[in-house]
Amino acid sequence: MDRSRITALITGASSGIGRAIALRLAERGAEIALVARRGELLEQAAAEVRERGGTPLPIICDVTIRTEMEMAVEETIARFGRLDVLINNAGRGHFALIEDTPEEQIENIFRVNVFSLWYATAPAIRQMRRQGSGHVINISSLAGKIGYPANGAYVAAKHAVVGFTRALRAELAGSGIAATVVIPSGVLTEWAEVTEGGAMMEIFGYEAERGGEMAREMGVEPLPGLPLLQADDVAIAIDGIIGLGVPELYTHPGSREIVEMYERDQPGTERRLEPFWLANREGYLKLRNTGG
Ligand SMILES: NC(=O)c1ccc[n+]([C@@H]2O[C@H](COP(=O)([O-])OP(=O)(O)OC[C@H]3O[C@@H](n4cnc5c(N)ncnc54)[C@H](OP(=O)(O)O)[C@@H]3O)[C@@H](O)[C@H]2O)c1
Q1: Which CATH architecture has domain 7-193+227-261?
Q2: How many C-alpha atoms does 207 have within 13 Å on its Cβ side?
Q3: Which residues' Cβ are closer than 6 Å to ligand 1?
Q4: Mutate which of 9, 10, 11, 17 to test ligand 1's pocket (most atoms within 8 Å of Cβ)?
Q5: Domain limits, the chain
Q6: Whose CA is closest to atom 19 on ligand 1?
């Protein structure tokens, strides 16, 4: 792939990480289809892409509707004549214990984070196979590698993003098309404010403070903290691996080591996480009992 002349389609490009990736790619003159539902924000992102030297194509599209997503891929190819990079970034979390999660929430979380992968990737790789090159980049999460409470559908969905990418890599063997799953930890975006069923953000402060207190009471050494990154930090890391055959990208320093520790010794690692999980549950129940 010629990294100096890229045509990309980014889902969830109206805010956060998706928007930041679009702006990064624009700096090197990329052609970029920006996909999301909020048209006004897409227009603003498109204007910024243009200012930075990119060629934007804003497309209003709900990634959970297969026909809309397929049309977005077709429109991109019709406009630019090719598609080098697909970034499946659109995603949303939720805020509910497993025993409280309504059916609709389970479905919505899987539709946006998982089903959409098929809707965008299938038409994209048909084009990439014709070209003999391309790169599909799927945004998972640390929650795609490790459990986290009150967000079970999201945790399961993001684990599915890892599995989808592994299957995709197997199917793309010998094709010249790369597939990568990205594992970010905390990023300062709208994500935690717009979780379905309530803002997950409300629990973070409580979990950190009360969890720290409980860890001291339980004599447990917490895991090393991970930095909160800006969306642009994640965009820079993703930009750096475009066109390369990297299977997994950890965007936060220290996060790969935590996953390796969890895989090597899950019970031991869970013991160090437990005070924070208990604090999360305590905070969740307080919020729910007060109608928050
Ligand atoms: N922020 C974090 O701490 C964090 C950590 C790990 C992983 N992630 C993952 O990173 C990705 C980007 O999240 P973010 O942090 O940038 O959050 P964000 O600012 O909330 O952005 C989410 C994007 O997804 C789009 N989207 C949601 N539902 C959609 C739908 N049905 N159709 C089309 N677009 C849809 C939103 O656009 P519209 O609302 O305009 O449609 C928005 O552009 C997500 O997959 C998220 O799960 C985030």
Answers
A1: 3-Layer(aba) Sandwich (3.40)
A2: 19
A3: 11-12, 14-18, 36-38, 41, 62-64, 89-92, 112, 139, 141, 184, 186-187, 189-191, 194, 231
A4: 17
A5: 7-193+227-261
A6: 16
Query: What confidence score (pLDDT) does residue 184 get?
Result: 98
Q: Rounded CA gap, 283 and 23, in Å?
A: 37
Helix axes 103-110, 152-171, angle to 10 degrees: 30
What torsion, rounded to 10 degrees, do the Cα atoms 169, 174, 175, 177 define?
Answer: 50
Question: Looking at the whole model, is its pTM more than 0.85?
Answer: yes
Residue with tokens 């399961």: 156
Of 165, 187, 238, the residue with max ligand 1 atoms within 8 A of its CB, to mutate for a pocket test, comes to 187
Query: By the 8 A CB rule, do 139 and 89 touch?
Result: yes
Active site residue 154: yes
Over the chain (292 residues), what is each successive 10-residue block's mean pLDDT?
89 98 97 98 98 98 98 98 98 96 98 98 98 98 97 98 98 98 98 94 93 97 96 98 96 98 98 97 89 54
Q: What is the DSSP string of 229-269?
A: EEHHHHHHHHHHHTTS--SEEE-STTHHHHHHHHHH-HHHH
CB 79 within 8 A of CB 57: yes
If one counts every other C-beta atom within 10 angstroms of the C-beta of residue 216, the result is: 12
